[in-house]
Specification:
The structure is a single chain. This protein is an alpha/beta fold and about 350 residues long. It has two domains: about 150 residues, NAD(P)-binding Rossmann-like Domain (Rossmann fold); about 180 residues, 2-Layer Sandwich (Dihydrodipicolinate Reductase, domain 2). Helices cover about 35% and strands about 25% of the residues.
Length: about 350
């Protein structure tokens, strides 16, 4: 199998390490690199001084995407900056590659329909990388919601908060794509998008949203650093509000989803890897002590490769990724126009 890595920053290298460990000598690696930064990360995301990535993984690198695609790779991992996701994925699909597309699909809706049409016309798999679908706490939360034992859902609250300044300790936060509007940055597209994906996966696609977002810190950013959005869901699990908070400055980091129900409540803490739920006077706590973050990426990789082999895809489809992107774009529009946005307004 020949695999083309389009972008080899921290997330690209994580995928590369997992692929190499899983496929061993059965995979040949190519890379399309624009910046060509000489940073080789360890499994704990520390820079390994003096280690050449190309030499360690026997990678052939190209500075031209067309030339890299002319080598006829089977798979392309699109893990570069958000603003380049659609152009690179389009070229890869048209060249005959199945594509692993790192989240989000894009930073706006331009070109999204074209990618969907190209993937269908060329019979290609496009798998969107939302690794939290494989988080044991979210999977347990989904089970509990579908079981319905806690009764009718009253409301849902998700929160993700983490300091942008400490996310990539090896570089100046102001230079990261997350901090730059021209590269598709902002807390909505780079952090909250994960939450929007699992919220629509567990509770259903929303009908409308209202939101507030902007800059509420002293960080030097050209993008929003917080968002407070309220989505209205009316689907198989019932009708209820879903609130989603995200910020770039909370410390210690916080990440959870809490559901209030008629007969109790449940909270999934993604960082502590626990699920706590109450029913009547009884409170129960489930722990996942063996959980390691990289396991989500490994499970995600195996699911993608299974889709490639079987030519069937039932999860993390491009269509699902577009739903999350539409939710993000709707929240931005709601905040900008200071009104509730009907999701029907946000179409590709």
């Amino acid at each position: 199998m020949k695999i083309l890595m389009i972008g080899l920053g921290s997330i690209g290298q994580r995928h590369l390490r997992n692929l190499k460990a899983y496929l061993g000598g059965d995979a040949e690696f190519l890379a399309y690199r624009v910046r060509g930064l000489q940073r080789t990360f360890s499994n704990t995301m520390q820079i390994r001084e003096g280690v050449c990535l190309e030499e360690e993984f026997s990678i052939r690198s190209f500075s031209d995407l067309g030339e890299a695609l002319s080598q006829k790779p089977d798979i392309a991992y699109v893990t570069n900056i958000t603003s380049q996701h659609i152009p690179c994925a389009l070229e890869a699909v048209r060249a005959g590659c199945d594509v692993f597309l790192e989240k989000p699909v894009s930073y706006d809706l331009a070109g999204v329909k074209e990618l969907m049409q190209a993937a269908k016309a060329n019979g290609r798999i496009v798998f969107v990388g939302f690794q939290n679908r494989f988080h044991p706490c979210l999977r347990r939360l989904k089970e509990l919601m579908e079981a319905g034992t806690l009764g009718h859902i009253i409301s849902v609250r998700s929160e993700i908060g983490e300091r942008l300044t400490t996310m990539h300790s090896y570089e100046n936060y102001a230079d990261t794509y997350m901090a730059r509007k021209d590269q598709g940055g902002g807390v909505i597209m780079n952090q909250q998008i994960h939450e929007l994906d699992y919220l629509q996966w567990i509770f259903g696609e929303p009908k409308a949203v209202t939101a507030f977002c902007g800059t509420n810190s002293e960080l030097k950013l050209s993008v929003e650093d917080y968002c407070e959005a309220i989505y209205w869901v009316d689907g198989p699990l019932g009708a209820f509000p879903v609130s989603a908070h995200a910020d770039f400055f909370q410390y210690p980091p916080r990440r959870y989803c809490r559901v209030a129900c008629e007969n109790g409540w449940v909270e999934a803490d993604l960082l502590a890897a626990t699920v706590t739920f109450a029913q009547g006077d009884q409170t129960m706590r489930e722990e996942f002590p063996q959980f390691q973050r990289n396991q989500m990426f490994q499970d995600e990789m195996k699911a993608f490769l299974a889709c490639v082999q079987s030519r069937k895809q039932e999860t993390l489809t491009l269509a699902e990724g577009i739903v999350s992107l539409r939710m993000a774009c709707a929240a931005k529009k709601a905040a900008q126009e200071k009104r509730m946005i009907d999701m029907k307004e946000i179409q590709i």
